[in-house]
Specification:
Residues 26-46 are annotated as: Disordered. By secondary structure, this protein is an alpha+beta fold.
């Protein structure tokens, strides 16, 4: 090797006590990744076994670590050569954690020390060279992403830092920083910047730093293996792409679709639970799954079968999204997985019991995925695969009817396999007969479908058999799909089930239009008349779990048709689904979406729902932790990562002050100069720091540094310090209750501005909701996020309108010039038109409600004429001041005043707003002198108003004292009334003051809301519910037993 190509060696003593030393050598010759070549010039690990392999984010490089050889080799996979050798000398028997980037940066942690190396420049990047580092920081996770950024997780402050690895003077600058909530702990960061977090309630969440969206992807509901203990989180691994998240946890790999927001399957490391063909199919379809298949024996055996030699140790095989890499005698063998899997016969026909997701992969996760998600929602998305096979057959049936292949007949017969069908329509009754062979014996099944629509005669247009047990029937009354339930092949349990019915009037003129209606990617959900004119369909939905997607429409039908038993059945089934199914929350939307109708027809179900779903959670455990006592019934979105990138410079300053605190003299000097800076700015100090803190330019990230600049946080913490108490986290059961349709965000902006589509919250302002904690936390969330701000702005606008107009209309001319009065009137007109625009929109939205509103009618009685200030005004102070008339010698009186006493400010105290308030106060105390300048006989209206006002005030005061005496009795009702009034205000703000796109913001209108509850108040609430016999009636028995156990309450 020439001098030019010889690598410079660097020896770094990491910790003398541990005797941890590292040398870096650059390898000059090519080392092909070929296990057949036994004459390579260089043996990177000197023939020793390779202990561990790590892949870079772009999968262009890998490192191999040999514990026996104390060496790490950095490989270029595409070029097939080893580039660097790192000699590692461990002072103790420990396992290395290694991460590499694609720009040749290496990070190593031996369990007590983290060291970073730039192999290209042959230098160490010391932690002190990270501009946001402090020696006391406890780093528990590190990695590199696709942008070659170095990511560090600092546990004590619970922050994640992203460093640029572009070395400048051996310095790495922090580019981004994020704060993780206290209830969560970071598990890992994906190469495309997704944070995976583990919550206190044993749930796993994914937070996308790019879109700022979070998903709950898994709840750990089973007991964790004892041997894992606290190391459980270290055994969780993630890989993802744009559409899928794959997780390895406790011997299985759940696969989550981010488009569908649901689990699509689980692979187990057991052939008894997972067929090997499923593993291969998923691996073929999901490149992001492949790296996790290192833990699945089926895939490892497949890789070994393709390798030239037997690879016994599964730890020496590394699978990436592109390749399978194996270790043999210090060499690396590579297999192209994409090519290998593509050569397998991975068709659906070869899969054993494939799920609906596997059968219709392209439809589920292709261009129509959004439509499927919108139509079927999470709780029914799996059923799309059941519907899909019928679409092509329905189209063929329509074509045959249009072509005249099905002549008009009263009776049709068809057979397929072991089943023969006879279909006939008589007197609006669809009669079906199926002859099926069971155990060699022919059994006849019959079903009569009463079609209650009398608008037209029912005729049979055509039938089409699909598979052995399904039949599609087209009539002039719509489309029917039946199947024979053969799960239990005893004669008594086999029956004909109506799986689907869509009512529509079909004739020769519109048959082509009807055909196009069914050409959509998904079958349209049944309409209202489907349930109204076919009672058998309603019965089959209730008894068949596959029809759960019809529940929402069926519940709407049941409420409007006053079918109490049907309503109760769907209500109970929906709660049971929440209780037992995986994607549980969305079943509650079946009930919450129909709250407006329940409020109108069956309010007792709202009360029942509020009671049954009180104090529930969507996880296996309730999260109990210490919190401020002021946070009782504080509502929030469950996960929100705070972006502190704006605070990086403040964070650097805090790190610097933390280091300086070790030197008392330096710290005092810094504080002295800070005081000199702050002193002249002290009047605006707190306002400035509040604004900077609100917009995250500063933050109390490191809260153990109390320098003068951080005085703001110290004072806020000191004066707002509250008693700590234990709180428990609950889920608000009103799922999707605050969301506005359409949920796919496709809407007409202009129409939404004048005729907004309401949310269930707007249409369901009910006392039964707001008498519970769930209703109160719903209001708290809305009020704290936007309600109080909009309410303040609206009132300020009204005050400006009132102030401008009152000043222009009532201030005498000698106190205000015409130019100022004109400007005030212009401002009043502008503000008045703004107010009028909201009133017009309110009227367009609901004319009847606007007209029946007392305050709207009351306001309409005012006009500008009432504020006329001309000299003929009888209320003009000059017209009511004492006047003296001349008496002539003949005894007549001159009608024109001879002398007028000059009026003062007390002549008409109602001219000025301030003195008018004082005049009313005097009148309340019994002094009516302010009204003595008017003649009551000439002003009967004034006399009537005085009497009414006095009477009403007396009555009001009497009732006020009575109300105070009964305050404790009506305390709850007062609270409920207050919350309902708040709900009315919020509903008006949402409909008329928020823009259409703002009503779709997930931060203001999340699907799920959580809240804290004081554990002592929770115990009291449980006692109250037990006294009212509301606790034991809930269907969530197991969940409530868990809550009682955590609160240490005897069951």
């Amino acid at each position: 090797m020439s001098d030019e190509n010889k690598s410079a060696k660097v020896e770094i003593d990491i910790d003398k006590s541990d005797d941890f030393e590292i040398n870096i050598d650059k390898i000059d010759n090519d080392n092909d990744i070929d296990p057949h070549n036994d004459k390579n010039d260089i043996d990177p690990h000197n023939g020793k076994d390779i202990t561990k392999m790590e892949i870079s984010a772009k999968e262009e490089h890998l490192v191999t670590y040999s514990k026996d050889d104390n060496s790490i080799v950095y490989w270029d996979i595409e070029k097939k050569r080893a580039e660097f050798r790192v000699n590692v000398k461990l002072g103790r028997d420990t396992d290395l954690c290694i991460r590499i980037s694609d720009n040749k940066k290496l990070a190593i942690d031996n369990g007590s020390h983290l060291r970073i190396y730039d192999m290209e420049n042959n230098q160490e990047i010391k932690l002190e060279n990270l501009d946001c580092h402090h020696p006391t920081f406890d780093y528990r996770y590190f990695t590199f992403n696709l942008n070659d950024e170095f990511i560090l997780y600092e546990r004590d402050n619970n922050i994640v830092l992203f460093y640029s690895t572009q070395t400048k003077n051996k310095k790495w600058k922090c580019k981004r920083m994020y704060k993780i909530p206290k209830d969560f702990e970071l598990i890992s960061v994906s190469k495309d910047d997704k944070l995976y977090l583990f919550s206190n309630d044993h749930s796993i969440y994914a937070w996308d730093l790019v879109t700022e969206k979070n998903l709950k992807i898994l709840s750990i509901t089973e007991e964790l293996p004892k041997d894992l203990g606290k190391r459980f989180k270290k055994h969780i691994r993630f890989y993802n792409d744009e559409n899928f998240i794959c997780i390895y946890v406790v011997g299985k790999i759940p696969i989550f679709s981010t488009k569908m927001e649901t689990h699509i399957g689980t692979l187990y490391n057991s052939k008894a639970k997972t067929d090997e063909t499923h593993v291969y199919y998923y691996a073929w379809r999901l490149p992001s799954l492949r790296p996790l298949l290192n833990n699945i024996d089926v895939m490892l055996e497949y890789v070994r079968s393709k390798s030239p030699e037997d690879l016994k140790d599964k730890d020496k095989i590394q699978i990436t999204t592109k390749y399978a890499l194996g270790i043999q005698k210090g060499r690396i063998w590579k297999m192209d997985l994409e090519e290998s899997l593509a050569g397998m016969d991975l068709t659906i026909e070869n899969l054993k019991n494939p799920s609906e997701f596997l059968k219709y992969w392209d439809e589920y996760f292709g261009n129509n995925s959004e439509l499927i998600r919108k139509t079927f929602k999470v709780h029914g998305v799996k059923l799309f695969g059941i519907y899909k096979p019928f679409l092509d057959n329905i189209n063929e049936l329509f074509e045959e009817v249009i072509d005249g292949k099905h002549e008009e007949e009263r009776k049709k017969e068809s057979s397929l396999g072991i089943i023969r069908w006879e279909i006939i329509i008589e007197r609006r009754i669809l009669k079906l007969k199926a002859f099926i062979t069971i155990h060699g014996k022919v059994t006849t099944l019959t079903r009569d479908e009463n079609l209650n629509d009398r608008s037209m005669t029912a005729r049979l247009l055509g039938i089409k058999l699909f598979s052995q047990v399904n039949i599609i029937i087209l009539t002039t009354k719509g489309l029917f799909i039946y199947f024979i339930d053969t799960k239990n092949e005893s004669e008594s349990n086999v029956s004909i089930i109506l799986f689907y019915y869509y009512y529509m009037e079909i004739n020769d003129e519109n048959v082509e239009e009807c055909k196009n209606f069914f050409l959509k990617p998904t079958l349209p959900l049944p309409n209202y008349n489907s349930f109204k004119f076919c009672e058998g369909f309603v019965s089959d939905i209730q008894s068949n779990d596959k029809n759960v997607i019809y529940y929402e429409k069926l519940l709407t039908f049941g409420i409007k048709e006053h079918k109490f038993d049907l309503i109760n059945k769907i209500y109970e089934n929906s709660l049971k689904k929440f209780k037992y199914e995986d994607e549980t929350r969305d079943y509650l939307t079946i009930i919450t979406s129909t709250m407006p109708l329940l409020k109108e027809y069956y309010p007792e179900f709202i009360s029942k729902y509020s009671s049954d779903t009180s104090m529930i959670i969507d996880s296996y455990l309730f999260n109990v932790k210490d919190n401020d006592d002021s946070l009782h019934l504080y509502s929030f979105r469950h996960l929100h990562i705070v972006n502190l990138t704006r605070s990086i410079w403040w964070y650097k300053y805090k790190v610097f002050m933390n280091k300086s605190s070790w030197n008392k003299l330096y710290l005092r000097l810094y504080n002295f100069f800070q005081i000199l800076i702050i002193f002249p700015l002290f009047p605006i100090y707190f306002i400035t720091f509040y604004i900077l803190s609100k917009y995250k330019f500063i933050d109390n990230i490191i809260d153990n540094v109390y320098d003068v600049f951080s005085l703001y946080f110290y004072i806020i913490e000191r004066f707002s310090k509250r008693t700590k108490t234990k709180t428990i986290t609950f889920m608000n059961p009103y799922i999707g209750f605050v969301n506005y349709p359409p949920y796919d965000n496709y809407y007409d902006w202009f129409i939404e501005l004048f005729r907004p589509q309401p949310s269930p919250f707007v249409e369901s302002i009910s006392r039964e909701i707001y008498k519970t904690w769930d209703g109160e936390t719903l209001i708290n969330f809305k009020w704290n996020h936007y309600g109080k701000y909009y309410y303040s702005i609206i009132w300020i606008g009204f005050m400006f309108l009132l102030g401008c107009f009152t000043a222009a209309a009532t201030i005498p001319q000698q106190y205000i010039d015409d130019d100022v009065r004109k400007k005030l009137l212009i401002a009043s007109i502008i503000l008045g038109f703004i107010h009028l625009s909201f009133e017009v929109r309110h009227f367009i939205y609901s004319p009847i409600k606007w007209l029946t509103n007392f305050w709207n009618i009351f306001e309409s009685n005012f006009s500008f004429d009432e504020f006329n200030t001309n000299n003929n005004d009888p209320n003009n102070p000059w017209n009511i001041a004492p006047a003296y008339h001349q008496v002539f010698e003949n005894g007549t009186v001159d009608p024109n005043p001879f002398i007028i006493q000059q009026p003062d400010e007390n002549t008409n105290m109602f001219v000025d707003f301030g003195t008018s308030i004082f005049a009313m106060y005097k009148f309340l105390t019994g002094d009516s002198s302010a009204l003595s300048n008017w003649a009551y006989k000439d002003d009967p209206s004034l006399a009537i108003l005085i009497v009414l006002f006095s009477f009403l005030i007396v009555v009001y005061l009497m009732n006020l004292f009575i109300g105070l005496l009964n305050n404790e009795i009506e305390k709850d009702n007062d609270r409920v009334s207050y919350l309902m009034q708040k709900a009315e205000i919020l509903a008006e703000i949402e409909l008329f003051y928020l823009l259409p796109h703002q009503r779709r913001w997930k931060t203001w209108f999340p699907e799920v809301i959580y809240y804290y509850a004081d554990d002592n108040k929770t115990r009291q609430k449980i006692k109250e519910m037990r006294k009212k016999s509301e606790w034991s009636t809930s269907p969530f028995t197991k969940l409530r037993e868990t809550l009682l156990k955590q609160l240490k309450i005897e069951n």
